[in-house]
Amino acid sequence: MDKPESTLSRRTVIKGAAWSVPVIAVSAAAPAMAASAAPCPTIPDFGGFVWAIPASGQLNPSTGHTGPATVNGVSVAESILDGKTSAGPATVTVTTTLPLVAGTSYTLSFGIMGRFADGNGSPTTSQSLAVSVGGSTIYRASTRTQSDPSIAVIPTGVNWGTSFKPVTVTFTATSTGNIPLVFTFQLPGMPAGWGGSDDIRVSQPALLCP
């Protein structure tokens, strides 16, 4: 795990067995049956997700708001917590399920923004986001640069509330059924006396189908 940073001011379609199909004589006038594609899943707004606050560790929710919200008419998930009740790490999960078809590629789109914590002169630390589908992580980002180059940097020098960075991630479903889509906010450990963790907002996600 990366060490906390110092002061910054706020603000395969499944293959089945082969079956022997009997030949049935039909009239030449009988129309062919066309297979209809499955509809593209609709993602609910964040108020319809299941929130675990926290999913692990301990938080101090009195210092900020973590949960669904509406900003300028847009549904958002926000994690705004200036402190935790323990020095260890903590997570918040935001979960829904999507009816996916194995072997099909989907594109998930959403917006993201961040804001540095207000430490009031005390050291502060980062916050990260991981997005997973069916238990596989498809996107990771942090409010500060991490040693792993695959972790994107969330823009923080933006107009808090309106300047979302667009994110698009394409993935292929490996299972058919109702598959979990999970946004996980990750807060690293914070020693006693530190001022808080950075903030993250995610805007309403959508799923695009081929």
UniProtKB/TrEMBL annotation:
InterPro entries: Galactose-bd-like_sf (IPR008979), TAT_signal (IPR006311). Gene3D superfamilies: Galactose-binding domain-like. Keywords: Signal. Residues 1-34 form the signal peptide. This is CBM-cenC domain-containing protein.
